[in-house]
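Handout, page 2. Input:
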Amino acid sequence: MENLKYRAIQSGLARLCGQAVTLLLTLANVTIMARLLDPKDYGIVSMATAVTGLYSIFAFTGLSTVTIQRDTITDQQTSMLFWMNMAIGVLFALLCLATAPILVLFYHEPRLFWVTMVLAAGFVFNSLGIQHSALLQRRLRFVVLTTIETSSRVISMAIGISMALAGFGYWALVTTNIVTPAIVAVLVWLTTAWVPGPPSRNVGARSMLRFGGTVTLNSLVSYLTYNFSMILLGRVWGAEVLGVFSRSYWLMNFPTETLNAALGGVTFSALSRLQCDPVRLRNYFLKGYSLVNSLTLPTTIFCALFSHDIILVVLGSKWLDAEPIFRLLTPTVLIFGIINPLGWLQQSIGLQERSLKMALVIAPIVISAYLIGLPFGPKGVALSFSTAMTLWLFPHIIWSIRGTVFSLLDILSAMGRPFLSAILAGATAFGAQRYIGELHSPFLRLGLEGATMVLLYLFTLLFVMRQKSLYLDLLKSLAGPKPS
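Output:
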């Protein structure tokens, strides 16, 4: 168990470092691309990816989760899952091709035909690498996986920026979507050196498909719920408005999503190995949950407080219409940071059916909120969305932990200290903006605002909230497991 703790913490640190690099690279890429492309370019691609992204969730999520979650899995079973992924990937690539003319008619946008056609190739590339990536996660080889993901992102960004500079417009974004999974597939095959065997029967496929199907349906419902706003805005308000909204949503959600991606895979893999040990499961999860919240909550609050300078620095002055949308989406992203780790917990201990039921309950609530806000444009949709998610927060937490070894007090305690620290640090840093705001450079202002909040937050969390021992324990664990 000590070895598992060491490997999990080491993997988590590797993921955090890798995702920090990815965060910086992506922000640099967005900063450049936002100045080379127009909101309409992003809107056109968002119209297509709102649908193709839905297909991707349906095609790939569940079967890779089976590989990671199972206590034991054979080579024959993994091979069967690989061939299932390949069949599903090809099927959805064909479905994507068939969808192209429908999207043209729905959005009244002829350029979507070839955009959707090209995006279909991504399904084949993803299906080639999904099981190999899952094997790396199962083995907690996150250093290798992080290196692969970062390398593929760097190459695809370079290609995208080159195409944007050459005047290819939205095709630069489309190409980036295709190149990334293709490079990942090649690298994970070379790294794992695993070649799938021929498909075979009687390897427990039914139970694997049931688990994978439940996870997939859950992801499908969640994706539809949280992306239906894109479809509605694109249809009613057009590509330019959708471009502004989608960039606002992406920019607000991206830091939290990156941090969740860094720790989520590690946490899920480690908790899956502990599903039969409730005492250690509780201990590991609460520490991990506190760590995740200590990173995501202050990041989101910082984005809300200093949205004007963030928009200027990352997207540029022509995107200032995104600022009010960006700020109105803050509660939604804040709540995602709180509830997403509870999803990892449910899946790791086999409560995926409960997670699906919760998704089916929240879906009509959120979609109704979209419809209420739609007549008022993107700001109305953002406000309605955030209101619905705020009302859903406590019911979600209570339902998630019902019948588990966790109490509501456990969750609130792990979440409360980072949240209060972030609020206090943010309020103080925002007050200091009165003096920092006199600087003319938004880059310098944002840097000083960020440094002020980070220092205040760390002091409050570590010393005022007395969390120093938790993080010292994590650092000590990096030295390796205790000798037996």
